[in-house]
Amino acid sequence: MNPPVTIAVLGPTCSGKTAVGIGLAQRLDGEVISCDSMQIYRGMDIGTAKPGKRELALVRHHLIDELDIAERYDASKFVTFAEDIIRALCERRKTPILVGGTGMYAKALVYGLRLEPADPAVFAAVLDEYQRAGGAEALAAEVGAVDPARAQSLAQNPRRLMRAVEVLRLTRRLPAEAPPHSELQARDEFRQFILMPEPAYHREMIRERTQTMLAAGWIDEVRQLLKRGFPDTPTARQALGYHEIADYLQACGSLEELTDRLFHRTIHYARRQRTWFRHQHPGARVIHVGRGVSCSDIEEDIATSLGLL
After folding, report:
1. Vertex 20, ends 198 and 10: CA angle to 5°?
2. Helices vs strands, H then E, count in the chain
3. Which of 83, 50, 203, 70 has the alpha carbon at shortest distance from 127?
4. Taking the complete model, does pTM exceed 0.90, yes or no?
């Protein structure tokens, strides 16, 4: 193809993205680029639904197991890494296939959003302040001195709040907000496909996967991460479900209660992702997923729609 096309397979957690991405890579002589804020960390395998050894052996994956949990990861780093990988793949005439559900990372890359400066030392100081008693309120007040309305919104999202304070201290202004939805236009080389499971079917898949993860050793995975200082990490500590398991290990509650908490936490997260992908990616094609729709069906649909089969 000229110019080379990068296929983005996006969507909420537990929507079949991993299998579809691998299948497309096999069909189209491609390689997978993970668009996941947590799969890049070594030792966080089960709870992040990271592709297993068998899956990783099928096609080459990028941005998997690249960082230690003590290292910071953000949209700026992701875009820098991903653009370098895409460039190299195109030079080798491989099809880049972006796969994941971290919406802000995907949006920044696909729509070419402006990236704000970052400084590990400044962020470390912000994180330290946030973790103190009353820290969240103090950081929100710092933002509120510049923009009270935005401070109220950011207070609901610790990662975004800390990032806003970091940028504010580096630039004396808050991070630029994304342009209006109506003005967003994907870069020419990207073709986006969003997998959107039917809600009832999605709930079943999430419940089944939660049970599978726990049976596979998720609790022990968290136990090992706690020994490595997981609660004090800058980014990894925000991974879905890990906090709940850490609490379970300390409180010694019942496994049934933990399973239920993880299920409902994941459902809540998936709803937020569904809303994000419905509204934040104009121009993307939504593929509805339900019973009877196989990954192979989706792969063939995507490849055919792009004229690649």
Report:
1. 65
2. 13, 6
3. 70
4. no
What letter would DSSP give residue 237? G
pLDDT band of residue 61 (cuts 50, 70, 90) is very high
Alpha-carbon distance values, 260 to 82, 206, 216, 247, 254 (Å): 36, 11, 17, 14, 10
Q: How confident is the model at residue 252 (pLDDT cuts 50, 70, 90)?
A: confident
Q: At what angle do helices 295-305 and 17-28 cross, to 10 degrees?
A: 50
Amino acid residing at 120: P
Distance CA 11, CA 89 (A): 23
Using alpha carbons, select from 62, 78, 140 the residue that is nearest to residue 113.
78
Domains and CATH numbers, the chain: 6-112+187-305 (3.40.50.300), 120-171 (no CATH)
Note the pLDDT of residue 99: 98
The two tokens of residue 131 are 């973790």
